[in-house]
Q: What sequence folds into this?
């Protein structure tokens, strides 16, 4: 029997710490995990989570892995946002917009994400907050995806 394929993923959750999906305990904010295809499908089906695959760095490089072009499964309405060609730094903020389903441009504060270095998410070590320009760029991507669904 073949080994299951494992995917590195970034999961953005707005649920309280301890929220579980696909046998994974999540913390509020950005989570990075390695999951099977079955777990990935379960995570993508949850409208309260924004899920993106992360490209793995090759063995001969020491750079941080970047987000792989893909999509975030977003709302109950099934909106998918194509992130191909979108600055990877905008991905978490677009994910928050998708989870919260903003109808007007959110403030920078509304897009802030708590960051934790420990696995349980108990010790918050920082905050990821967009600049006004990043918020505006993320809003344009999000609005474009919504317009494509309405057509």
A:
């Amino acid at each position: 029997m073949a080994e299951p394929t494992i995917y590195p993923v970034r999961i953005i959750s707005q649920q309280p710490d301890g929220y579980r999906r696909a046998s994974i305990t999540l913390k509020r904010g950005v989570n990075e995990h390695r999951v099977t295809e079955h777990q990935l499908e379960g995570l993508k089906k949850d409208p309260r989570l924004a899920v993106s695959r992360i490209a793995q760095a090759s063995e001969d490089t020491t750079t941080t892995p970047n987000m792989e072009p893909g999509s975030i499964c977003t709302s109950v309405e099934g909106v998918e946002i194509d992130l191909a060609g979108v600055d990877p730094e905008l991905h978490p903020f677009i994910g928050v917009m998708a989870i919260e389903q903003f109808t007007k441009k959110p403030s920078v504060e509304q897009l802030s994400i708590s960051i934790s270095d420990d696995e349980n998410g108990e010790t918050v070590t920082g905050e990821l907050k967009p600049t006004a320009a990043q918020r505006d760029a993320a809003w344009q991507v999000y609005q474009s995806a919504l317009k494509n669904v309405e057509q």
